[in-house]
UniProtKB/TrEMBL annotation:
Residues 145-288, 339-461 form the Lcl C-terminal domain. Residues 42-53 have a biased composition (Polar residues). It comes from Pseudoalteromonas phenolica. Residues 29-41 have a biased composition (Low complexity). Keywords: Signal. It comes from the Bacteria. Residues 29-55 are annotated as: Disordered. InterPro entries: Lcl_C. This is Lcl C-terminal domain-containing protein. Residues 1-23 form the signal peptide. The lineage of its organism: Bacteria, Pseudomonadati, Pseudomonadota, Gammaproteobacteria, Alteromonadales. It holds the Pfam family Lcl_C.
């Protein structure tokens, strides 16, 4: 136990060092109230500049009766967690409900014992190795250059051993650079053989046509976190398909909308997600294929873009004109009880967090609960409505609901009004620190983990097949 606590203390110190340059970090409730009143946005970067009178309110369309899975559009990976977390500490090796609640391990693809796969992979991950021309290889192939994710359809590059040279050397790091975003970019500030920034690296991959492809790109933050295996740590990935993975942070394509020169990255030590300066060298795992779990292309009305409209339900929200809305209102539907159906993920969310109610979630007070109390809350929801299957969302499900263009909160306020600025519990236990589970920051979408005795907000979810109240 002493060794584990020492490692955990080191992890927290690393968190503080990593996020010191990022304007938004998980903070206490009192600090949030003070900082939100004093926050300012980078010049020319926020939609706050539009302060004209609000247009008519945005209405979320209703389902025709019960919400069904018919419009579910974006398959995604489960967390890889096949064990249960107990309270206040320890994990249970098997997911046999000894913990007494419907946990992460008992939901989704990871819970399916007869899951059919195109390829193979740990837990419910389903991968196929590809050769230098992008052709499938057998699972036992000793050498491969890329991996196809058979769940999402994305193709990922595979790194070569560190310090061996070549453009895909796993030890090489890069600053983040995009010539279309000069105030967020830092050129050639990593550690590699030549031109060590993200744009130069992608140019090298595409010029060389790695695996026969010339459309390599940085993944968005939802895609990259979807690759995380939360049942593993250091690195938190399926190591049989992605050898030579570093335990550090990997760049995404997404700028941190409210912090100049800050860009989102995903850590493959324990699956954290945070923003950091573009000048700080990080690793890259490039991807190709249609962007997954990302609402680009959805219709966003001018009324919905107007910040004065958004701030009716989220008084401090700021949105960047440089980022496409990933969670517009057209992505969602409401059922007869006011619950919210996400057409991309197939999930149904409570409109309000625990303790709040009403059509605008203004009635009552948002409750902060420890992990045990959070599970007791969803159990009471189910007891009150026979046959319902409310639960805590997984850490990936929370991220998939993210509005990438906005912060405070990083959610659509017309769909989820008056969300409290703070952390919300996931149902995903930490596989290494067995007294901790993952939480998600609704203020700005940072992912971290806390001791299960800490109190956070609770936002219940259920699968679209569970359509009872």
């Amino acid at each position: 136990m002493r060794d584990m606590n020492s490692q955990k203390a080191l992890s927290v110190l690393l968190l503080l060092a990593f996020t010191s340059a990022c304007k938004y970090e998980p903070v206490s409730e009192n600090t949030q109230a003070q900082s939100s009143n004093n926050s300012t946005s980078p010049a020319g970067n926020s939609q706050n500049a539009n302060t004209t009178a609000p247009l008519p309110p945005i209405e979320v369309a209703k389902c025709d009766g019960e919400c069904t899975c018919d419009e579910f559009s974006s398959p995604y990976n489960d967390t890889g967690v096949t064990f249960a977390g107990d309270y206040p500490e320890t994990n249970l090796a098997s997911c046999d409900l000894q913990s007494g609640f419907n946990q992460d391990c008992s939901n989704g693809r990871d819970s399916m014992t007869d899951l059919a796969k195109t390829g193979t992979g740990n837990a419910s991950f389903d991968y196929t190795k590809l050769d230098t021309q992008g052709q499938p290889l057998s699972v036992n192939a000793a050498q491969w250059q890329c991996v196809r994710d058979n769940v999402t359809g994305l193709v990922w590059e595979v790194k070569s051993p560190g310090n061996t040279g070549g453009i895909q050397d796993s030890s090489f790091s890069y600053s983040w650079y995009d010539e279309s975003l000069p105030d967020y970019s830092t050129a050639d500030n990593g550690e590699c053989d030549d031109n060590c920034d993200s744009q130069s690296y992608l140019n090298k991959l595409n010029t060389q046509k790695v695996c026969g492809f010339d459309d390599w790109r940085l993944p968005n933050k939802i895609e990259l976190q979807d690759l995380v295996h939360y049942g593993n740590s250091q690195p938190s990935i399926d190591r049989d398909f992605f050898p030579n993975t570093q335990v550090g942070f990997y760049w995404t394509q997404n700028i941190d909308t409210d912090d100049t020169n800050s860009v989102w990255s995903v850590g493959f030590g324990t699956g954290r997600v945070a923003g950091g300066l573009s000048s700080e060298p990080k690793y890259i795992r490039a991807v190709r294929g249609e962007q997954n779990l990302y609402g680009i292309g959805e219709v966003v009305s001018e009324a919905e873009k107007l910040i004065t409209n958004r701030q009716v339900f989220a008084g401090n929200q700021r949105c960047s004109e440089r980022v496409s809305f990933s969670a517009p209102s057209t992505r969602y539907l409401q059922d007869e009880q006011g619950n919210v159906f996400d057409k991309q993920t197939g999930l149904i969310w409570k409109r309000c967090v625990a303790g709040l109610s009403g059509s605008e979630c203004k009635d009552g007070s948002a409750e902060q609960l420890d992990w045990q109390q959070a599970y007791e809350y969803v159990a009471k929801l189910n007891d009150a409505n026979t046959g319902s299957q409310w639960r805590l969302p997984s850490i990936k499900e929370l991220q998939a609901n993210n509005e990438l263009a906005c912060e405070e909160p990083a959610l659509n306020p017309f769909v989820f009004p008056n969300v409290p600025m703070g952390q919300v519990w996931s149902g995903t236990p930490h596989n290494k620190f067995e007294d901790s589970s993952y939480n998600y920051e609704y203020r700005n979408s940072i992912i971290f983990y806390n001791n299960r005795t800490v109190k956070h907000y609770v936002h219940a979810v259920k699968n679209c097949a569970a359509n009872s109240q």
